[in-house]
Amino acid sequence: MDMQRVETAVKQYRKIDSQQASVLTFFDAIWQAQDDISRSTPSVETMIDRDAAGDSLATHQPLFMLAEPSITLPEFLGAVHAISKIISEKAGLGDDASAALIDADFSAAIDEDLLGGALSDVDGFTSAVAEKLGADADEALTPVTVDFVLTTALTPFLEGPSAAIIKSLEEIDWRVWDSADCPICGTPASNSRIVDAGELQGSQRVLACPLCHAEWDYQRVRCTRCGNRSHENLHYLFDERDPGHRIHVCEVCHGYIKTSVERELDVTVVPQVEDVVTLPLDDLASSKGYSPLGEDVTD
Ligand SMILES: [Zn+2]
Ligand SMILES: [Zn+2]
User: Fold this and answer.
1) Residue 252 and residue 234: Cα distance in Å, rounded?
2) Tens of pLDDT, residues 186-245
């Protein structure tokens, strides 16, 4: 994460919208903690065979399956502890929820085996840990909180290896991937941005991964959830006072993705920051019956 760009964007948004200030303060603390963790994690050379990478992309296997980052248990537990502390102090949870998070014994719940399988099934990993901790939607410690802690703690260990893979494959044809799931770690894109790519190419859409922070191109007129390409079933929703932030919705699967239109925005566009400042759009989308990943419409 380029912390300088993050801080610039945070400052700009604080000025534009004071209602965002407290949520930005919380996430800014999270991003700084992630940055500290990733700085103290030694970087490793990534050797990935180009032909194997090409085959992997063509068969929809995320590249971490070829070159899995190694995460040691003590380092990961240290990250979980640091992130939990920030959440319990700054996320605005109630007293019970804060105390339950601080008391949660992650070191008893996570072992080498469980952590080793985390990258091939992130959701399976976070729900297994939540279950071991006795988290429940009706309890002070919820599965949503556990999932947030664990995925936030994973990112600093994945961001460097993800960037290293992308750099080592500089000239590879990423178009064969052809998916809105991250080509590196497999997580569905959390948001997209429309960038002006110059007169010849017009504008392009770039998707962002919330977990490893990879970015990749995707067709502009195509649902990121079901792949539908028909114009009449795809449209944007947005607040007229803020046309730079939109939700791209699909009438086939009722999925959506948040989209930042760079030419309409007078700020530094950083995907992680955009994801946070557009949280009100998630409420708007859900109030209209859309869900982040849509329904399964494959037949
Ligand atoms: Zn990713
Ligand atoms: Zn769709």
Assistant:
1) 8
2) 999 999 999 987 777 778 999 999 999 999 999 999 999 999 999 999 999 998 889 999
Q: Which amino acid is at 23?
A: V
What's the DSSP call for residue 181?
B
Domain architecture of the chain: domains with CATH: 41-174 (no CATH), 179-287 (3.90.1670.10)
CA dist., res. 54 & res. 123, Å (int):
26
33-51 pLDDT, tens digit each: 999 999 988 777 777 888 9
Give start and end residues of each alpha helix (H) in 91-170: 95-103, 106-109, 112-116, 122-132, 143-168
Ligand 1 centroid – CA 218 distance (Å):
15
Single pTM value for the model: 0.94
Interstrand relation of 215-218 and 203-208 (parallel, antiparallel or unpaired): antiparallel
Strand residues in 20-88 grouped as ranges (E): none
- Residue 42: closest CA among 152, 156, 170, 122: 156
Strand-by-strand arrangement of the 203-208 sheet: 215-218, 203-208, 191-196, 256-261, 245-250, 234-237
The DSSP call for residue 24 is H
Average of per-residue pLDDT values in the chain: 93
Which residues, 6+ apart, have CB-to-CB distance to 283 below 8 Å? none
Residues near ion ligand 2 (Cβ under 5 Å): 223, 225-226, 228, 250, 252-253, 255
- Distance (angstroms) between ligand 1 centre and the Cα of 94 equals 31
Q: How many residues in the chain?
A: 299
Residue 54 Cα, ligand 1 centroid: separation in angstroms? 17
Q: Say which residues have a Cβ less than 8 Å from residue 157's Cβ, sequence separation at least 6.
A: 37, 38, 41, 69, 71, 75, 76, 79
Residue 291's DSSP bridge partners are: 255
